[in-house]
Amino acid sequence: MAAAAAAAGGRKRKAPRGTFLAVAGRRWRRRPSPRRQRAAALGGESKARPAAGWHRNEEVSSDSEGESPAAGGRRPEAAAAEEEEVEETPQEKKLRLAKLYLEQLRRHEEERAEEEAFAEDLIGDRLKEDVLEQKGRLQRQVAKDVQPPDPASIRVLRGHQLPITCLVISPDDRFIFSAAKDGFIIKWEVESGKKLCVVPGRKKGTEEQQVGHTAHILCMAISSDSKYLATGDRNKLIMIWEAATCKHLYKFTGHRDAVSGLSFQKGTHQLYSASHDRSVKVWNVAENAYVETLFGHQDIITGLDGLSRECCVTSGGRDGTVRVWKIPEESQLVFYGHQGSIDCIQLINEEHMVSGADDGSIALWGLTKKKPLTLVKQAHGTFGSHGLQQPYWISAVAALHNSDLVATGSHSASVRLWKCGEGFRKLEPLFDVPMVGFVNSLKFSAAGDFLVAGLGQEHRLGRWWRIKEAKNSICIIPLKQRAGTADSSSPASSLSANPVP
Fold first, then answer.
1. CA angle at residue 188 from 266 to 473, to 5 degrees?
2. Cα-flanking dihedrals φ and ψ of residue 95, to 5°?
3. CB 206 within 8 A of CB 198
4. E strand spans, 181-320
5. 36 pLDDT band (50/70/90 cuts)?
6. DSSP string of 377-402?
7. In degrees rounded to 5, what are phi and psi of residue 457?
């Protein structure tokens, strides 16, 4: 009775334990407790005296009056949603959270699967590229994106007194090693253009007293791990240096004439050497050991190159042949195509090579055919008076490994870049880079973002002409790329920003 009286008096009364409130419009309705529900089920509801406040709606407190329809209160949809949320049981909440957790796990697994698939694609592409490279079938299409450089961006490094004859770039593209007819060896830093090491030439007859070359240096090579540098001269000697410090380690003797070509087998310390004595020798530099000698050419060998396979290629000068030497089998393949002396050669990949001759022609070769895949005659034009014209000699060739980009040099006042067609069956000229003097050596950087040319007043192998206005120097030519393909962080961009007088 006291409870009923309190309810009738309008005072608020706490709901008994076991009951909860449900939203119904703007009023709160108390639900009967479980005890009263059981009593009603047994028919005892009619005997029990109802509490006055349990079956009538009480007015909502003043705190909630502002939610009336007139004051812009809850809409029926929002009220229904709140009612549904309030009435969620613990079991339903657990089920909902479990479903949400499972959905998050599923999405996470899908994202991880996508990342793994992307990584597998990258690895698969790289493995496929490695296989094609080993088979000699890899040909990256880069020539179409290369543009002529601004002449002002070409950097000139001077330090040799006589014509540059050969140069190499370290595998990480940070250093250039050059040599000349003065017998000097200079190590340059690419970024700054500074001389880091200078090994002077020596006078004839001082070979035993002093370390250094006493004759024209004709060739050089660097190992793929940048550990060893090898140089060969007209005095039949091969000298081995520590590339990092230019410290002399030892020298190889055995050739009976000038050493004209050197190349390290990629990934090893095995060195191949070619000579005017018409032989190819194999050396183990790490063990300071001679391995074997191979014979076959009928005239002086003028150039040599090698890659990762245990074989090398040579240009045979006046015998008019290009030869591929298979070292383990002690056999050779002979190729014919040029009409003049073949003075330079370089591998493009494991199956293709490019060569140049003094008849002005350049040729692309494949190991499966004894004739050139393509031959370009008078590649740099002709010179001389009418009726006495002769082609410019091709004195240097270079190829960006596993690509379609080739460069050639002569004394025609330019370096010419070429694009190899599909299957290396065509050579298309791209553009010329002005260069005064004999281009005696050409090398692409490993990344392909610059080309280095060694210039001299005379040809590498002789003194048939002399170009007085030429400077004995090294030129670093940045290879610009079309918009959208160039990388602003590449060394090429820094090369053009720091010209060296």
1. 105
2. -65, -45
3. no
4. 185-189, 195-199, 217-222, 228-233, 238-242, 247-252, 259-264, 270-275, 279-284, 289-295, 303-306, 311-315
5. low
6. TTTT-EESSTTS-EEPP--EEEE-TT
7. -75, -15
DSSP letter, residue 490? S
Q: How far is CA 354 from CA 66, 82, 104, 164, 376, in A?
A: 91, 81, 58, 22, 11
Tokens representing 490 are 């590449």
Q: Closest Cα to residue 402, out of 48, 113, 129?
A: 129
Tokens of 390: 């002769």
Q: What token pair was written down for 168?
A: 């190499």
CA distance 277 to 264: 20
227: left (phi over 0), alpha (psi -120 to 50) or beta: alpha
Six-digit token pair at 408? 């050639």
Closest C-alpha to 113, from 121, 103, 124, 101? 121
Single-letter amino acid code for the residue at 481: Q
Cβ 209 vs Cβ 195: under 8 Å: no
Q: What's the pLDDT score for residue 380?
A: 95
- In sequence order, the 6+-apart residues with CB closer than 8 A to the CB of 172 are 226, 446
Helical spans, DSSP H, in 15-63: 34-41
E-assigned strand segments in 300-459: 303-306, 311-315, 321-326, 331-336, 342-347, 352-357, 362-366, 374-376, 382-383, 390-391, 396-399, 405-409, 414-420, 427-434, 438-444, 450-456
pLDDT (tens digit per residue) in 441-500: 999 999 999 999 999 999 998 888 899 999 999 999 999 887 655 443 343 333 333 333
Which among 191, 154, 153, 149 is positioned nearest to 170, based on CA atoms? 191
Cα atoms found within 13 Å of the Cα of residue 221, Cβ hemisphere only:
26
> Within 13 A of 59's CA, how many CA atoms are on the CB side?
9
Tell me the residue ranges of DSSP E strands in 43-83: none
DSSP, res 143: G
Contacts 24+ apart (CB under 8 A), 60-67: 60/26, 60/27, 60/28, 61/12, 64/26, 67/26
Neighbouring CB atoms inside 10 A of 453's CB total 25
pLDDT digits (tens, 9 = 90+) for 404-431: 999 999 999 999 999 999 888 999 999 9
User: Do residues 73 and 25 touch, judged by C-beta distance below 8 A?
Assistant: no
